[in-house]
Write a structure and sequence with these properties.
Distance between the termini: 28 Å
Helix content: 10-25%
Strand content: 25-35%
Number of domains: 1
Order of helices and strands: EEEEHEEHEHEHEH
Shape: globular
Number of helices: 5
Strand order of the largest sheet: 5-8-7-6-9
């Protein structure tokens, strides 16, 4: 039997990603979950004829710092509204000279240096050990590469994202250390990516480089980051308008079967 096409794509937006829908949002959902409230109301609209849900990760007006985002409620709320694919927009710092501000990056691996975030839906009772060997959906990653080329905004792909706790930026020593391990650094990928796998949902991270991390011998400044995000926003909207319709096809990936062999 042929698997049904993906019907609903969720976009979790970081800073600067707003006004996503053609003709504006059609409705707004206020969702309650077993883990509390998500970051804000979930907006529903269409992109290229595809039903899309949009959730601002940091809340309306960017009021929630990365270490206080209710990641479990966010992912669960989107799943409860029918999302079968999650596209995460993340702002990151660069750990590489060849990835300057303005570059779009497609991570294929991550390192978790967070410290105090709930990382699973399964805290007791039934236990699942999901595989994160390949943490991002191969279908969505392929579509992102294709859409980036079409939109004239190619991704630097097969990169490693190191996720830190925040909300502070790195020391010079930390930044130098992370350069030996990864390509970009951010504060919001984990545990979002893990929770999506536990909900057997396709997930991809579209990362936008806003600055060089402090290894570059110049402290990171929020003014620089905000300006780069502003310039990137229009490019990301163009890319998503091409990317989202590509996603709405029968999946070839195994994301929807992530829990089949993970239970104890």
């Amino acid at each position: 039997m042929t698997e049904a096409a993906r019907r609903t794509v969720a976009v979790i937006g970081g800073s600067g990603v707003t006004g996503l829908f053609e003709g504006g949002a059609k409705r707004s959902h206020r969702v309650s979950t077993a883990w509390g409230a998500p970051s804000g109301p979930v907006e529903e609209g269409e992109v290229g004829g595809v039903r899309v849900l949009f959730l601002p990760r940091h809340g309306v007006g960017h009021t929630i710092p990365p270490h206080r985002v209710n990641y479990r409620a966010n992912v669960d709320a989107l799943k409860s509204l029918g999302a079968d694919a999650i596209v995460a927009i993340n702002s990151v710092g660069s750990l590489r000279e060849e990835l300057p501000p303005g570059t779009f990056v497609l991570p294929s691996q991550f390192l978790d240096f967070t410290k105090q975030r709930p990382t699973t839906f399964y805290d007791g009772g039934r236990v699942y050990h999901v595989s994160l060997a390949d943490p991002f959906c191969p279908d969505l990653s392929r579509f992102a590469v294709e859409a980036g080329r079409t939109a004239g905004t190619p991704f630097a792909d097969r990169k490693t994202y190191v996720c830190v706790e925040g909300p502070r930026f790195s020391t010079r020593a930390e930044s130098a250390f992370f350069r030996t391990l990864a390509d970009v650094i951010g504060m919001t990928l984990v545990p979002e990516v893990t929770l999506a796998r536990e909900r057997a949902t396709c997930y991809v991270c579209l990362a936008m480089v806003t600055d060089f991390d402090v290894w570059a011998e110049r402290p990171v400044e929020m003014k620089e980051i905000v300006e780069t995000m502003r310039r990137n926003a229009e490019r990301m909207h163009r890319l998503l308008s091409d990317f989202v319709p590509r996603v709405a096809v029968p999946p070839a990936c195994a994301c929807s079967r992530a829990l089949e062999a993970a239970g104890v």
